[in-house]
Amino acid sequence: PLLSPLTISSSRNPLQPPDTSSEEPFTTYFDSKIPIPEDETHSCFSFRKLWAFTGPGFLMSIAYLDPGNIESDLQSGAVAGFKLLWVLMLATIIGLLLQRLAARLGVVTGLLLAEVCNRQYQKVPRIILWLMVELAIIGSDMQEVIGSAIAINLLSVGKVPLWGGVLITIADTFVFLFLDKYGLRKLEAFFGFLITIMALTFGYEYITVKPNQEKLLKGLFIPYCQNCGTAQLEQAVGIVGAVIMPHNMYLHSALVKSRQVNRANKREVREANKYFFIESCIALFVSFIINIFVVTVFAEAFFEKTNADVSSVCVNTSSPHSSLFPSNNKTLEVDIYKGGVVLGCYFGPAALYIWAIGILAAGQSSTMTGTYSGQFVMEGFLNLRWSRFARVLLTRSIAITPTLFVAIFQDVEHLTGMNDFLNVLMSLQLPFALIPVLTFTSLPSVMNDFANGLFWKVAGGVLILLICSVNMYFVVDYVRALNHVALYVGAAVLSVIYLSFVAYLKSFLRASLTLPWRSLRPFPLGLALGPWLKRLLPPLCTLLSGSCRGPGGLPSASSSPD
Q1: For 360, which of 79, 151, 230, 433 could close a Cys bridge (C-beta 3.0–4.6 Å)?
Q2: Exposed, middle or buried by CB within 10 Å (0-12, 13-18, 19+), for 60?
Q3: Residue 559 and residue 547: Cα distance in Å, rounded?
Q4: CB atoms near residue 454 (< 10 Å)
Q5: How many Å from the N-terminal Cα to the C-terminal Cα in the chain?
């Protein structure tokens, strides 16, 4: 059987609740904690306390506004019109519920999600998990930095090349990251300023285009997509993958540690959980409104437009980018670069430059939070205690180096294929955040009285299953589009290894939802590979290529692709 009887491991103690008799030293990236004021006059709700807790949720919400999300929004509008707005709303609500779990873990335990993983998982799985999360951060960072570089290219009328924009983004990210030396609240205010810029710029586009409000409301509240085909379905899956980011769970569990909460006092912990959830609701509502601005602008102006339609308008307005759109009757395909160009063609140069400013704010803010995510993940998994500059330099180098290579060798006008690949990469990493966060927040020995109840266990399990299934569909669809048998076989083998590791993590999750924690022991990762290899490789090969089955249904080592 895949799961052997689980007993306590003598080599690795299960995670114990932190000692609440004394406050642990503050070891996150930030150097100070924000005090929470007492408000005796308002026992149920206090705006003073809400203001004191405001900050981490808005930093977390920036992942819902990064250039990858903006591109998914505009493509959703151009491909499906207003019909997928309900998917965006549903994905945002699911994201909120998952962020709640991550925040509660940080508040109750005083540990980062990465630290909890470091304490519980065995060495090899722990390193694999860290590498998977790092891949997600690198993929997200590439989209964010390149998004900023595209914005700089648009603002400079093409005079600053893509690689130049990447270097500028790297440099100013280093500068902005040290703003917290002047106080954490000032840093949070700077992020709030960038979110405000996004709201104003994309709001300007919304007012300029004037989307149909009836279609907007219908798309939001009627979960139906009339006359939708494969393209619209793939776009819906892409929305879910773009909104729910794996490294954001690790980030949020760390950011909540920036407030002074006495974890020995249940009332303070309960109060912190309440206010952090309220703040997250407000922050994600703001991000949702900004995303709606982008979707509806492109739904109103460019839904069912062809390349020839756009090309003629751009030529008539003497746009220097009119050559981007061939004069054919193919449906218009846009990304954040072409999106700015078509806005400029239809609504004037101001629309283009204001769009670029919004993209720059989105890219710059998400690049900074991505850097924080990288540092929290590395410190938690590897227990690093390096100097501030060394941590920033290492995490930036890991994420920026592949981005710079792409910028040097790739044309700014042909990045859509790379973005598709990065979206697939990040979709694959989702289980490595969602499964651990549900596992550990369901354990009474970790969360004490704040462990998930039956409703949250069931709902969390269903949500994770739904999200992972949706994203696996996205991944399989992407692999099938590669149209090469050798790539199919390679993808099948990697899929078996990937699913085996996911099964290893799920063994913890299943046990945490059904068994007492003190009866748990990690089973060796290698034991998972054999049975899953035998069970999963044949159907995966069949699904992807239909041509790699040998005698008895097992993969044939001697079979060669036709």
Answers
A1: 151
A2: buried
A3: 9
A4: 9
A5: 36
Instruction: Note down pLDDT in tens along the chain; length 562 residues.
Output: 333 333 323 334 344 444 433 444 444 455 678 888 887 676 788 888 999 999 999 999 999 999 888 988 998 999 889 999 999 999 999 999 999 999 999 999 989 999 999 888 888 888 889 888 888 888 888 888 888 888 998 999 888 888 888 888 878 777 776 776 777 888 889 999 999 999 999 999 999 999 999 999 999 998 888 888 877 887 887 788 788 888 899 999 999 999 988 888 999 999 999 999 999 999 999 999 999 999 999 999 888 888 888 888 888 888 888 888 888 888 888 888 888 999 999 999 999 999 999 999 999 888 888 888 888 888 888 887 666 667 667 766 776 777 777 777 776 666 656 776 777 777 778 888 888 999 999 888 888 889 888 888 888 888 888 877 776 776 777 777 777 777 778 777 877 888 788 888 888 777 776 654 444 444 444 444 445 445 544 554 454 444 444 433 333 333 333 3
Can you tell me the distance from the alpha carbon of 547 to that of 11, in angstroms, rounded to the nearest whole number?
45
Rounded Cα distance, 330 and 308, in Å: 8
Contact between 317 and 306 under an 8 Å Cβ cutoff? The reply is no
Structure tokens at 252: 């949020």
Cα gap 59→283, rounded to integer Å: 9
- Residue whose token pair is 């998982």: 121
H or E element at residue 538: helix 526-544
Residue 316: how many CB atoms within 10 A of its CB?
Answer: 10
CB distance 191 to 432 below 8 Å? no
Maximum distance among all alpha carbons in the chain?
Answer: 78
Do the Cβ atoms of 429 and 250 come closer than 8 Å? no
Q: What predicted TM-score, i.e. pTM, was given to this entire model?
A: 0.83
Provide the 10 A C-beta neighbour count for residue 380.
25
Per the structure block, which two tokens stand in for 19?
């000692």
DSSP sequence for 54-111: -SHHHHHHGGGGSHHHHHHHHHHHHHHTTTTHHHHHHHHHHHHHHHHHHHHHHHHHSS
CA pair distance 175, 116, nearest whole angstrom: 31
Quick one: 389 exposed, middle or buried, by C-beta within 10 A (0-12, 13-18, 19+)?
A: exposed
Cα separation of 341 and 334, whole Å? 9
Confirm if 446 and 517 have CB atoms less than 8 A apart.
Answer: yes
CB atoms near residue 36 (< 10 Å)? 19
Cβ atoms 437, 6 nearer than 8 A:
no
DSSP 331-360: BP---HHHHHHHHHHHH-HHHHHHHHHHHH
